[in-house]
Amino acid sequence: MRAHQIMTRSVVTIAPDATITEAANTMLRHHVSGLPVVDAAGALVGIVSQGDFIRRSEIGTQRKRGRWLRVLLGDSAVDYVQEHGRRVSDVMTNDPVTVTQDATLEEIVNAMETNGVKRLPVMDGARLVGIVSRTNLMQAVASLADEIPDPTADDDHIRSRVFAAIDKNDWSPFGLNIIVRDGIVHLSGVITDERSRQAAIVAAQNVAGVNKVHDHLCWVDTMSGMFLKSPEDIEMAKAG
Questions:
Q1: Are 217 and 203 a contacting pair, CB within 8 Å?
Q2: Per-residue pLDDT tens for 150-165?
C-alpha cells in the first residue's frame, strides 16, 4: 500500500498570514489536529498543529524561565514569538517533512517516528495532493483486519470514482477519506448534517464496481465541538 491509497485528498489548508484565532477555529470546525500552510501561489510553506497552541500567553502557559537562563539557552526570542505571535507564520513549523504519493506505508511510519510528527503532507512534485495522518494508518489497519488482499488496480479506479462522485457536492464530508478493498468501500471524514451521511453512502453505492459501503463518518456539532462516531462504528464497538 502507498500514500495515495490511504491519504486524505480534500486537505483543509490555511494561509501564512491568517491569524492564530482563524487557524484554531478552522481546526475545531473541521475536526482536524493540523493544517498545511499554503501561500498565495499554492506552495506548501509550513504546517501548524495543536502542539503550536500549547505554549500561549493567552492561556498563561508560556514558559516561565529566569532572564539569565533564557540568555544562556539563547532561545528567548524564539519562545516569545511562539507564545505571543498573532499570525500562523509566527508559530508554524517551516519546511515540513513530506512524502510522495508513492511512498509506502513503511516509509510513512518511519518518517513520522524519525521526525516526531503525526501527519505528513503528500506531494506530487511541488504540488500538495493530500495529507496522511495516524488516523489514515488506523483506517488502513481496520480495513485489513479480515486479511483482505492489497488493493488492485480496479480498487484504485473505484476509489477515484467514489471521490469524484462525493467530493464535487456542497454536502461532501470534511476531510473525506476513502479506502477500497475488493470493491468494499470504507468512508471516513466529518459531517455536520446527518443528511450528508446518507447522501455520501448513496453516492458511493452508485459507483460501478462497489460491492458494499461501510460508514465511518463522524458527526460534529460546529458550535460545541461535540462529536459522535457513525452508527455502524458505535454498533461495532458494542459488539466488540
A1: no
A2: 556 688 899 999 999 9
> Of 145, 167, 186, which residue sits at a domain end?
145
Residue 229 identity (one-letter amino acid): K
Chain segment 135-194, per-residue pLDDT in tens:
888 777 766 655 445 556 688 899 999 999 998 899 999 889 898 988 999 999 889 899
Strands in 127-133's sheet, in edge-to-edge order, are 99-100, 119-124, 127-133
Structural domain including 105 reads 3-145
Among the listed residues 104, 89, 69, 101, the one whose alpha carbon sits nearest the alpha carbon of residue 20: 89
Residue 130 sits in the same domain as residue 27: yes
Indicate if 168 and 139 belong to the same structural domain: no
| 139 and 167 part of one domain | no
Q: For residues 145 and 136, give the distance between their C-alpha atoms in angstroms, rounded to a whole number.
A: 14
DSSP states along 167-203: HTSTTPPEEEEEEEETTEEEEEEEESSHHHHHHHHHH
Cell of 115: 521526525
CA separation, residue 176 to residues 11, 130, 132, 202 (Å): 9, 11, 12, 15
Does pTM surpass 0.85?
Answer: no
Torsion on CA atoms 79, 133, 9, 86, rounded to nearest 10: -10
- List the grid coordinates of 50: 495543536
User: Helical H runs in 9-152?
Assistant: 20-30, 67-73, 76-84, 88-91, 105-115, 134-143
